[in-house]
Amino acid sequence: MADATEEHPRRTRAHRGRPAPEIPTGTATLPTVRPKPGPVRRWATLTAVVLLGAWLGLLAVGGVRAPVGPMDIRLTLRPSLDGGTKINVSPLGALELDSHVAPLRLDVDVDRLDPVRSAALVQNPDLFANLGDEVASDVQDGTLDLAVRSVTAVVAGATALGLIVYRRPRRALAAGGLSLALLASCGVAAYATWNPKSVLEPKFSGLLTSAPSVVGNARSIVSEFDVYQKELARLVTNMTKLYDATSTLPAYQPDPGTLRVLHVSDIHLNPAAWHIIESLVEQYEIDVIIDSGDTMDHGSAAENAFLDPVGRLDAPYVWVRGNHDSAGTQRYLGRFDNVRVLDHGKAVDVGGLRIAGIGDPAYTPDRSQEAAGDPGEVAAGMRLAAELRRQAAAKTPVDIAVAHNPVAAKETDGEVPLVLAGHLHNRKTQLLPGGTRLRVEGSTGGSGLRAIEQDTPDPVMASVLYLDRETKRLQAWDEISLGGLGLSTAEVSRHLPEENQPGAKPSPDGSKSPSPEPSTPRPNR
């Protein structure tokens, strides 16, 4: 034992005072060793991490906003099997270009026309001479910015996901490097297959399927660029001046003794109409907006996004279907909390008024169906009149009836004090034999986007109706007219009904008016 102590002194001191470790007896159990995954499985996992991380990175970075001439656009890279470029022009539709073959697609969303940059072009037409070079430079800058951000996002996304999955920095860096190589190969493939002539053969969808008949096909634009440039200048000028015209509208002081109804109609897909309606709602403190239809042009699903601004209006929106509005349009509008869709004589209480309406029986964009014409409109008007009588018998009389076509609206004569319509794109007021007043509104969209092609644009029209809060009878109305696309005039005229109801305040000339006189309009510009 002494020899053992001398031979292993450190071991003896280390175990002094401790019990000797027990040596297990019997058969020892060896730990389970898991087999390492094979190379195929490791590469499959790494590939999945790289692809998923790169995709998440692209989603995180989103798109890049860039000014291109007078427009604001958004550039986005999307994974795709076919590649190419897709240009979205909401609400008109989209066009697709076979610009390249790579697993990445470039999405270009045209967000809006910037009024400041557009106004600069209008005020200085000489700028159009350099517009082409400016647009090319803007697109190049935006694409370069998108490329830098996308590379950063793809590498960061793949690296972060690799770190989460493997928990090893070396594997995570390998995933990031592989994602960079993948993106670089996509860029090389896109560059190698780049087809600049694809712009000559675009694929249209939505309302843009009719674009070649409106602006000419791409080949004619290329061969006659000088003519197209002049047309582009006219379109931009018209749209800009329409936005500018709303600033010339005079301000009014609303009378607390009246309900104020904004009557609009036949917007026909003109996006500038929402800016005008929003301005009028704010200036006149509107209680209810009534739209007598033809908000769309074709009623297609591609147009539905055009209706989204309705949900942001600061007033209830009552709507009936026009002959350019589809059942799909009607369902889409019914999704908004502030919208009341009327059909089949349905009546609703909104803004202190009881309003009933019926949708137009015709749907003229659908050429597969023959329009019923005036007999169909008369039948619809008779159904509406029957519902008005039923409401009156139930002691819930209707204050305002709404139909798109005046032919249908006239059938309500004697059943309601006021009926509103549109369709004609021409404003008029008529006292029917039975005592009902018919008000037909003009086109709040200036006859729609087709107006940008006209040398003499149609005026943009809307009316503010003043109704007594007690009797709910029409006391007066203001007819608002903007000069139309390309013109920057704004006019407001006050009108009184012949049978002006008691309770209206006397105006200085002895006639009766329901509200204070408007402030002096600003000079037209």
Automatic annotation (TrEMBL):
Chain intervals for the UniProt region annotation (Disordered): 1-37, 491-525
Cellular component, GO annotation: membrane
Pfam family, one: Metallophos
Transmembrane segments: 43-64, 146-166, 173-194
Composition bias, Pro residues: 515-525
GO terms, biological process: lipid A biosynthetic process
Keywords annotated in UniProt: Hydrolase, Membrane, Metal-binding, Transmembrane, Transmembrane helix
MF (Gene Ontology): metal ion binding; UDP-2,3-diacylglucosamine hydrolase activity
Location of the Calcineurin-like phosphoesterase domain: 259-426
Name listed for the protein in its UniProt record: Membrane protein
Species this chain originates from: Streptomyces gougerotii
